[in-house]
Design brief:
single chain, 208 residues, five-stranded mixed β-sheet
């Protein structure tokens, strides 16, 4: 049971699973995005948190959520928006675990939503803020590059933020990240309240 062949096979299986995740992410990024409906960011965030809450509690992360009950609805694909939020929460949790291996009152993660006006349009602005290790300024401009990751082998594919930015862009929105070493990291997702039907119809026709 402890033979070198068994160890070798276990490593092959592990790497095969990692490759399957990468391929799955690429397929998700490439497939048609034609399921558009009125959605609530409050529900998107609550559903995302429910999938990760067990691990967040296990890691001893102090989570705070601030979402107004009367937040405007947006138009979008709920599964893809949930994918974006889960990715941002996962990245934030990783940064917190790097700084605080054990539970701590300073191990904080905050999710906040607010209406926002910009460029003559109305948006729902969602921020995911963590007080983890931060991102060095020399690499922050590269974090949205495909296959770029600072995580060790097997811990990250380098596709999460790239795919998330593409999904947000498909919703006519914006994704940005601000950070500094020793300070908080703030990921901001701005999604339009009234995404025009024509924009999505043209996108669907193009994808088809």
């Amino acid at each position: 049971s402890d033979s070198p062949d068994r160890d070798f096979m276990a490593r092959i299986i592990k790497e095969g699973e990692r490759i399957a995740v990468i391929v799955g992410n690429l397929l998700s990024f490439a497939r048609q995005r034609d399921v558009i409906e009125e959605v609530s960011m409050k529900e998107i965030i609550e559903d995302s948190i429910s999938l990760l809450m067990h691990q967040i509690q296990k890691d001893g992360i102090q989570l705070s959520v601030d979402i107004p009950a009367d937040l405007p609805l947006i138009k979008g694909n709920p599964q893809h928006l949930q994918q974006v939020i889960i990715n941002l929460l996962t990245n934030a949790s990783y940064a917190l675990n790097q700084k605080y291996p054990a539970a701590s009152s300073d191990k904080r993660l905050e999710i906040r939503c607010r209406p926002k006006s910009a460029m003559g349009k109305e948006y729902v602005s969602t921020t995911v803020t963590d007080w983890g290790i931060g991102i060095p300024q020399e690499i922050i401009d590269r974090i949205f590059d495909s296959l770029f990751t600072t995580k060790p082998p097997g811990k990250g594919t380098g596709l999460g933020l790239s795919i998330s930015k593409g999904l947000v862009r498909d919703h006519q929105g914006f994704l940005s990240v601000e950070s500094a070493m020793g300070g908080p990291t703030v990921a901001t997702v701005d999604l339009p309240v009234f995404a025009t039907e024509n924009v999505f119809e043209e996108q669907i026709e193009t994808d088809c």
